[in-house]
Automatic annotation (TrEMBL):
Enzyme Commission identifier(s): 2.7.1.33
Phosphoribulokinase/uridine kinase domain segment(s): 19-142
Organism taxonomic ancestry: Bacteria, Bacillati, Bacillota, Bacilli, Lactobacillales
Entry protein name: Type I pantothenate kinase
Organism: Leuconostoc lactis
Top EC group: transferase
Keywords from the named record: Kinase, Transferase
Keyword Kinase: yes
Length: 224
């Protein structure tokens, strides 16, 4: 992590800066972003690109629900406007809030982000944004990523078994083998397509590629 922190600090000019972090679904973007924010010796804030997803109702209305997570299902223009507002010196920006428990934008809640020194934007479409000062791609073997995805799906579904408000509740009583098969079908039909078609190509734009081992630990950092 020190190598990456130093590379970012070399780009930082003492004013507002943006860092983007992307990688496959389940590769660990949120955790990595939080760890990076803590390691930077400045005021850093993390925003998820999921907060800029279209609502499920909007996706359904436009026939895009089955492509949820693909670039066309995000408000990339709204993310660009947030960055532009902070670069212009605006002290706060109000953005939507995506809730994992309902897998949708919360129509009743918005969040206010105070202008940090470094804004870290993490998510599958982060490197689709042009106005980023430093771009990071998290990489790992496909077998590890799929294993992490399945483990996370099973764990989060088990946690929802007593929460009927969670979208995962409907699957909580499903036999593990059946749930595992459903999860990997979703992977093949959606997440793998998103990775191959949209996420992986953005690795070419990255200023740094961080390779993770099977324990989610940093194996190698390549600064371009």
């Amino acid at each position: 992590m020190n190598t990456l922190v130093q590379a970012i600090q070399q780009r930082y000019q003492g004013d507002f800066m943006t860092v983007g972090i992307t990688g496959s679904v389940a590769v660990g973007k949120s955790t990595f972003a939080a760890n990076l924010a803590e390691a930077l010796a400045v005021n850093a804030a993390v925003v998820s690109t999921d907060d800029f997803l279209m609502s499920n109702a909007t996706l359904m209305a436009h026939g895009l629900f089955d492509q949820k997570g693909f670039p066309q299902t995000y408000g990339l223009d709204k993310m660009a406007q947030m960055i532009a507002a902070f670069k212009a010196g605006q002290s706060t920006v109000t953005i939507p809030l995506y809730r994992q428990d309902i897998a949708d934008i919360d129509a009743q809640v918005q969040q206010t982000i105070s202008r940090p020194d470094i804004l870290i934007i993490e998510g599958v479409v982060a490197l689709q944004l042009a106005a980023l000062d430093f771009k990071i791609y998290l990489d790992a073997s496909l077998s590890d990523i799929k294993s992490w995805y399945l483990s996370r799906t099973l764990a989060m579904t088990a946690q929802a078994q007593d929460d009927p408000t969670s979208w995962r509740y409907q699957f909580a009583q499903m036999p593990v083998a059946e749930l595992s098969e459903l999860a990997m079908t979703t992977w093949d039909e959606t997440n793998q397509v998103n990775l191959d078609r949209y996420i992986l190509p953005t690795q070419q734009q990255a200023d740094a590629v961080v390779s993770l081992d099977s324990e989610h630990q940093i194996r190698r950092i390549t600064i371009k």
